[in-house]
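Open question from group meeting: does this chain pack into something compact, or does most of it stay loose? Before anyone orders reagents, we agreed to write out a predicted structure and look at it together. Recording both the input and the output here so the notebook holds the full record.
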Amino acid sequence: MEFKATDIAVFLNGEVVGDGNVKVFNVSKIEDGQPGTLTFLANLKYENYIYQTNASVVLVNKSFTPKETIKATLIKVDDAYQAFASLLDLHEQSKSKQKTGIEQPSFIDKTAILGDDVYVGVFTYIGEKARIGKGVKLHPQVHIGDNVSIGKNCIFYSGAKIYNDTVIGDDCIIHSGAVIGSDGFGFAPQDDGSYKKIHQIGNVIIEDNVEIGANTTIDCGTFGSTIIRAGVKLDNLIQIAHNCEIGENTVIAAQTGLAGSTKIGKNCKIAGQVGMAGHLTIGDNVTIGAQSGISKSVKSDRIILGTPAINIKDAIKVYTIFRNLPKLRSEVIELQKEIKSLKKNN
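Structure tokens returned:
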């Protein structure tokens, strides 16, 4: 599909600077822009590319003032990054809405209930008493277990596995390989040194507008629920253990792991490869740096880093000392030599 710059500007409530009749049919990175594509400039450290790009249209902030001549047509908006995201969202919605109907072979239990405009891809399985909302897209090889409830306009990409009794709200996206509702890691040690499995009889509840990345796993509660609140965004390769709860609009990057019954507050930002012990409480608006180890609960409005994680200002001081250890060691050795020399001379 092709769009004129003026049409895009109207959609984004933006202002065209240049040729409003220029057409685009794809998007690109600003450094790799080609004729017929649209790109954006939100971070001024990439500003030099806007004078070189061959893209036809560039979204920029209204505050942007060029220092050189720009070949491309500009569309000035309040926030170029958000505007670009809105265009991509519109593009993705137009693609996904094209698919409807039930492909064969697939299996849908006779007791399952499917809403209007549902798409069921080939080799998909839908279990007993499952309820699938209007406009849901189940791509090939998705597994929907018994008694699963899914709201409206969700997208499940190929190979997503949703275990029995899971509840998922509206407008969620589950990427390939994600496993929702698998057993929590519960085993009771026995007198002979073996372990007896503790059956996990809870479920997972995922509220509206949640996105879960590829190969991320969320365990069901031992009893009760593991809960992912509205607006949460989970990256790829994350492990959420049994009975955890993640607060609204929290984002978590790849390879982070939460042990059982940890509670994370609202609007938190958790970087990659963070590890959290079990039964912790993380407050609201907490930021945790990459590769941090969290062994204690954290109060709201904190920025922490390190293993064990501490206040970021203290962490920076610790890292500065650590970086200077070789130099400090050499200085100590030299001092020791001087002390020995002084003792001999005395």
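Observations to bring back to the group:
The chain has three domains: 3-96, 101-314, 315-345.
The first strand starts at residue 3 and ends at 4.
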